[in-house]
Amino acid sequence: MLDELTYVLITPYTIFKSRTGNVVARLLSETGLDLVGARMFAPSRAMAKAYASCFPPAGAGEKEPRRLLRDYILGHFVLRSGQKRYPRVLLLLLRGPNAIAKIRQVAGEIRPNDLTGGTLRGSYGNYLRDPQGNVLFFEPAVLIPETKRDAARHFKIFARYADSDGGICKNLVAYPKDSNIERTLVMIKPENFTRPSRRPGSILDLLARSGLTLLACRVHHMSLEEAEKFYGPNRPILRRIYTKKVAAEARTHLGGLLDFEIGGKQAATIGRLLGPSAGDDQFEKIISFMSGVPAQNATPAQRKKPGPAKLLLLVYEGKDAVARVRTLLGPTNPANAEHGTIRAEFGQSIMVNAAHASDSIKNARRETAIVRPGENNIRSIIGQYYGKAE
Predict the structure, then answer these.
(1) pTM listed for this prediction
(2) Are 253 and 140 found together in one domain?
(3) Total structural domains in the chain?
């Protein structure tokens, strides 16, 4: 069966209530589909009207959910009187066999007074009516296409407004004066995407405990060249670490192997000779892991090409954002991480440690410039399946 491309649009209320991670976890684990794209939107009125037009009136016999969805988009995708946070929607692109039907099954139907939790809408949505049939409250949790024809029409809207309304969203929150507002970058690492699972969503859910605002979300494939720039400041650090490590190992083990005692000066000499090379070897393992491309003997063309390893880029904003995210992440070595932190839950080693987060505002800016979380790549993904958007 041929792959299909479909989407899930996570609503402002679902994002505001920090349910995004749970939604992503269920989408990936229950469908087995491949997450190939993501983009945050702060919809303009023009985008909201264009998307709402995809749910036109169907005459006297129009089904109520269709009208409710249209009214919901017009009323909740843009800033309303009294709101302090500009509404955001998160677009997820998912690919795989029979993708549209699989997402419909996980999302669930829109049914009044459905209090079951078997679907996303049953768990996180609300469609409440009184005994007389009047609608008391409506929240769909996620929006999806019903058919491939719907998907094609909706994707044109998203592609049209991806640059103007999407990317790293700005001015979403009115912060108090003199707040220490920062932005930081988080990368959910490749080991979380080796197979469809709840892991990426579970990490997002833990990050939501920071109380920060998620400004951007993008699926990214690093090239070797990008990985080398991104982790470049770590190379001299690794050389120093391995210079000491090689010296210590030489004194402990090499002396026994050669049946004579190696002194401190001799061990230090061995460390100076071999340590930098050992550090470089570890550096190449890191950039190979992050890109999915073997670093040794890679050609210039191979170094520039995006690798197969998948990352999810996230930009968070809020008071003391850098420190708050790194506290939730835990130490680089998962063995030293406290329970409840991301690396304690999902880390395996110093390199395979679930996620990366910037350690300073300066590095957040540097790293963001390299991986470009605001870059628009959904237009090209959509074009592969539905043709060039207008």
Answers:
(1) 0.93
(2) no
(3) 2
